[in-house]
Amino acid sequence: MTVAVETGLWQLDASASTVALRHRTMWGLVTVKGAFAAVSGGGEVAADGTATGTLTLDVASLDTKNAKRDEHLRGADFFDAAHHPEITYAVRSAELRSGGTVEVSGRLTVRGISRPHSCTAKLTGASADALTLDTEFTVDRGEFGLGWNQLGMIRGLTAVTATLRFTRTTAA
């Protein structure tokens, strides 16, 4: 990336990271919000400044503050957590650009379906031992087999927001 981000291995600090989603439902009248309580990941910054890594979300940890809805989201109509317990984002390339923006490209896997996905993140903090990235992007749930839509209530894209804090690890 730059001298502001050290080369080497980095581990996601789950206690200082959040991944949340929001989606308009009930014909656009209600916004459902939720967050994943269990996130993990890590990556590596290479000598040329590029980064690769993986972010993993535990589907069963999605909390929308409505137990019945959460159970439905974990079920076969949506995430099918019994067969696909994780959502993963495999970062193939992350490059720091001017102004602290980071261009990220990779593969998003939801419900066993992988699709290429790119987004822009903002490097909001960096030191020799920690860095924080903020991002927001949209996902078309239909591309991942999440097509359940009783009476046409669920339309549009799902917004995903993430604040990801990584700490530098020491080599074993």
Write the layout of secondary structure elements.
Elements: E1 8-12, E2 18-25, E3 30-36, E4 39-45, E5 51-58, E6 62-63, H1 67-74, E7 86-96, E8 101-110, E9 113-126, E10 130-139, E11 158-168
Antiparallel strand pairs: 1-4, 1-11, 2-3, 2-11, 3-6, 4-5, 5-7, 7-8, 8-9, 9-10, 10-11
What does this structure look like?
With 172 residues, this protein is mainly β. The chain has a single domain, classed as Lipocalin. The chain contains one helix and eleven strands. The chain is elongated, with a radius of gyration of 17 Å. The mean pLDDT is 87.
Kindly list the characteristics that best describe this protein:
single chain; 172 residues; mainly beta; Lipocalin; eight-stranded antiparallel barrel; 1 helix
Annotated CATH topology: Lipocalin
Largest sheet properties: 8 strands, antiparallel, barrel
Number of strands: 11
Residue ranges: pLDDT <50 for 5 or more in a row? Answer: none
Beta-strand share of residues: over 45%
Rg over C-alpha atoms, rounded to the nearest angstrom: 17 Å
Helix and strand succession? EEEEEEHEEEEE
Subunit arrangement of the protein: single chain
Query: Which term fits the overall shape?
Result: elongated
Helix content: under 10%
